[in-house]
Amino acid sequence: MKSIFPDPITQLPKADIPLEGLTAYLSQAVTHQTLYMQFEKTVELPEHEHADQIGFILEGKIDLIIAGEKRTYTKGDRYHIPAGIKHSAKIYAGYADITVFMQPDRYNVKE
To answer: Is the pLDDT of residue 111 over 90?
Structure first.
């Protein structure tokens, strides 16, 4: 799959996220992480929780269930999952976003 991200993004380190068909580039900061993610395959994420998450959808579609409420987000949408709120997701093939995790150690660099 051809990346939708320009060279400065694709030259960032890849994030170690064990999801088949996901390419994720990691920008590390002291207080948070920004991920540039592109999904080649549809994946379902089971219910979980963590620090605040903010997403900006660039392409495709994601179904999020946040605190029991289901919403569908598509290109141009944005979402916020507050810290400690249980959520799950179905991310469809072709989806791409920029996601900010307000947690500086959420993911490691892929070796």
So the answer is: no
